[in-house]
Amino acid sequence: MGKYVDGYVIPIVQDKLEEYQKMAELAGSVWKEHGALEYIECAGDDLEQKELVSFKKLTDAGENETVIFAWIVFESKEHRDRVNQAVMADPRLASSMNPDSHPFDCKRMAYGGFKTIVSF
Fold first, then answer.
1. Dist. CA 8–CA 26, nearest whole Å
2. Name one Pfam family in it (predicted).
3. What is the total count of domains within the chain?
Protein backbone atom coordinates (compact mmCIF):
# COMPACT_ATOMS: atom_id res chain seq x y z
CA MET A 1 0.00 0.00 0.00
CA GLY A 2 1.30 3.46 -0.90
CA LYS A 3 1.63 6.50 1.27
CA TYR A 4 -1.13 9.05 1.74
CA VAL A 5 -0.66 12.75 0.98
CA ASP A 6 -2.55 15.84 2.04
CA GLY A 7 -1.98 18.60 -0.48
CA TYR A 8 -2.93 22.22 -0.74
CA VAL A 9 -2.52 25.27 -2.94
CA ILE A 10 -2.89 28.82 -1.60
CA PRO A 11 -2.61 32.16 -3.37
CA ILE A 12 -0.86 34.65 -1.10
CA VAL A 13 0.15 38.30 -1.31
CA GLN A 14 3.93 38.55 -1.80
CA ASP A 15 4.24 40.94 1.16
CA LYS A 16 2.84 38.27 3.49
CA LEU A 17 5.18 35.48 2.38
CA GLU A 18 7.63 35.95 5.26
CA GLU A 19 4.80 35.89 7.81
CA TYR A 20 3.42 32.76 6.14
CA GLN A 21 6.83 31.08 6.20
CA LYS A 22 7.11 31.56 9.97
CA MET A 23 3.65 30.06 10.44
CA ALA A 24 4.54 27.15 8.13
CA GLU A 25 7.82 26.44 9.96
CA LEU A 26 5.95 26.06 13.25
CA ALA A 27 3.22 23.97 11.62
CA GLY A 28 5.76 21.72 9.92
CA SER A 29 7.62 21.03 13.15
CA VAL A 30 4.34 20.18 14.90
CA TRP A 31 3.18 17.86 12.09
CA LYS A 32 6.55 16.07 12.06
CA GLU A 33 6.55 15.75 15.85
CA HIS A 34 3.13 14.11 15.70
CA GLY A 35 4.24 11.59 13.07
CA ALA A 36 4.04 13.07 9.57
CA LEU A 37 6.71 11.53 7.36
CA GLU A 38 7.33 14.71 5.35
CA TYR A 39 6.10 18.29 5.43
CA ILE A 40 6.94 20.46 2.42
CA GLU A 41 5.86 24.01 1.58
CA CYS A 42 6.96 25.75 -1.60
CA ALA A 43 6.48 29.33 -2.81
CA GLY A 44 5.89 29.92 -6.51
CA ASP A 45 8.94 31.00 -8.46
CA ASP A 46 8.37 30.14 -12.13
CA LEU A 47 4.62 30.38 -12.58
CA GLU A 48 4.13 32.06 -15.96
CA GLN A 49 3.03 29.23 -18.24
CA LYS A 50 1.72 29.92 -21.73
CA GLU A 51 0.74 26.46 -23.05
CA LEU A 52 -0.56 25.04 -19.75
CA VAL A 53 -2.82 26.23 -16.97
CA SER A 54 -0.48 28.08 -14.60
CA PHE A 55 -0.87 27.85 -10.84
CA LYS A 56 -1.48 31.61 -10.83
CA LYS A 57 -4.38 31.17 -13.24
CA LEU A 58 -5.65 28.09 -11.42
CA THR A 59 -5.81 30.03 -8.14
CA ASP A 60 -6.83 33.35 -9.70
CA ALA A 61 -3.75 34.93 -8.11
CA GLY A 62 -3.30 38.63 -8.70
CA GLU A 63 -0.19 40.44 -9.92
CA ASN A 64 1.01 41.02 -6.35
CA GLU A 65 0.42 37.39 -5.33
CA THR A 66 2.34 34.16 -5.58
CA VAL A 67 1.17 30.60 -4.91
CA ILE A 68 2.01 28.20 -2.08
CA PHE A 69 2.17 24.57 -3.20
CA ALA A 70 2.46 22.20 -0.25
CA TRP A 71 2.01 18.62 0.88
CA ILE A 72 2.28 16.43 3.95
CA VAL A 73 3.13 12.74 3.63
CA PHE A 74 1.71 10.02 5.87
CA GLU A 75 1.95 6.22 6.07
CA SER A 76 -1.76 5.80 5.23
CA LYS A 77 -5.09 7.63 5.37
CA GLU A 78 -5.67 6.22 8.86
CA HIS A 79 -2.23 7.47 9.95
CA ARG A 80 -3.11 10.89 8.46
CA ASP A 81 -6.34 10.99 10.45
CA ARG A 82 -4.51 10.18 13.73
CA VAL A 83 -1.72 12.70 13.10
CA ASN A 84 -4.11 15.46 12.03
CA GLN A 85 -6.27 14.90 15.11
CA ALA A 86 -3.19 15.31 17.35
CA VAL A 87 -2.04 18.37 15.40
CA MET A 88 -5.43 20.07 15.64
CA ALA A 89 -5.39 19.55 19.43
CA ASP A 90 -1.82 20.88 19.82
CA PRO A 91 -1.87 24.19 21.76
CA ARG A 92 1.09 25.56 19.79
CA LEU A 93 -1.18 25.88 16.76
CA ALA A 94 -4.29 27.13 18.57
CA SER A 95 -3.90 30.72 17.38
CA SER A 96 -3.37 29.64 13.77
CA MET A 97 -6.63 27.66 13.78
CA ASN A 98 -8.51 30.96 13.60
CA PRO A 99 -8.94 31.81 9.89
CA ASP A 100 -8.73 35.53 10.70
CA SER A 101 -5.15 35.05 11.93
CA HIS A 102 -3.87 33.63 8.62
CA PRO A 103 -1.78 35.76 6.25
CA PHE A 104 -3.95 34.45 3.39
CA ASP A 105 -7.63 34.12 2.52
CA CYS A 106 -8.75 30.67 3.69
CA LYS A 107 -11.67 30.72 1.26
CA ARG A 108 -9.17 30.66 -1.63
CA MET A 109 -7.23 27.65 -0.30
CA ALA A 110 -7.61 24.36 -2.20
CA TYR A 111 -7.06 21.20 -0.12
CA GLY A 112 -7.45 17.48 -0.55
CA GLY A 113 -6.25 14.04 0.52
CA PHE A 114 -4.59 11.84 -2.08
CA LYS A 115 -3.76 8.15 -2.24
CA THR A 116 -0.41 7.46 -3.87
CA ILE A 117 -0.58 5.70 -7.23
CA VAL A 118 3.14 5.94 -8.20
CA SER A 119 6.13 6.42 -5.92
CA PHE A 120 9.86 5.83 -6.42
1. 17
2. DUF1428
3. 1
Amino acid 98: pLDDT: 75
CATH number of the domain within which 70 lies: 3.30.70.100
Tell me: pLDDT of 1 over 70: no
Angle between helices 17-33 and 77-89 (to 10 degrees): 110
Query: Mind listing the pLDDT tens digit for each residue in 55-113?
Result: 999 999 999 999 999 999 999 999 999 999 999 999 998 877 777 778 898 899 999 99
Domain holding 46, by residue range, is 4-115
- For residue 120, tell me if it sits in a domain: no
Radius of gyration over every alpha carbon of the chain, rounded to an integer in angstroms: 15
